[in-house]
Amino acid sequence: MEMFAVVVASILFIGINRYLLKKKYLKKLNDTVEKEDRFCVIDIRDYISAHRAPYPGAENIPLSYLSRALKERFDCPKEILVITDDERGARMAAKLIRKKQNKPIYYKTSVS
């Protein structure tokens, strides 16, 4: 019985933490116009998608290369806006970026 209570408590704790961390660190940007000086914009879509539908002022770093780029060259004092195809990619990018910079990350899905 004690083991069951521990397992249930662990599952609840993990679920609540994941939900709260997602809401705290990853926020969807609904504004149609962003101020250029407010964000460092990272386009995590693949090269082909980013080339076909470029986002103004964004640096294209595909999600598969993001970890390496964060270690080598990325340093941004501003808030971060991630351009992505879906929320799953934004969550993965936010997890990588949070390891280096502990601040909220905004995301915007592209329309291609």
Quick one: CATH superfamily? Rhodanese-like domain
What shape does the CA trace take?
A: elongated
Rg, Cα atoms, Å: 17 Å
How would you classify the helix and strand content by structural class?
A: alpha/beta
**Percent range of helical residues:** 40-55%
* N/C terminus separation: 53 Å
* Domain tally: 1
Instruction: Give helix and strand order, one letter per element, not per position.
Output: HEEHEHEHE
Domain Rhodanese: 35-100
Protein name: Rhodanese-like domain-containing protein
In short:
By secondary structure, the protein is an alpha/beta fold. The chain is 48% helix and 19% strand.
Architecture overview:
It is a single chain. Helices cover 48% and strands 19% of the residues. With 112 residues, the protein is of the alpha/beta class. It has one domain: Oxidized Rhodanese, domain 1. Strands 1-5-4-2-3 form a 5-stranded parallel β-sheet. The longest helix is centred in the first third of the chain and has 24 residues, at 2-25. The protein is elongated. The protein starts with a helix and ends with a strand. The mean pLDDT is 83. InterPro entries: Rhodanese-like_dom, Rhodanese-like_dom_sf. Residues 35-100 form the Rhodanese domain.
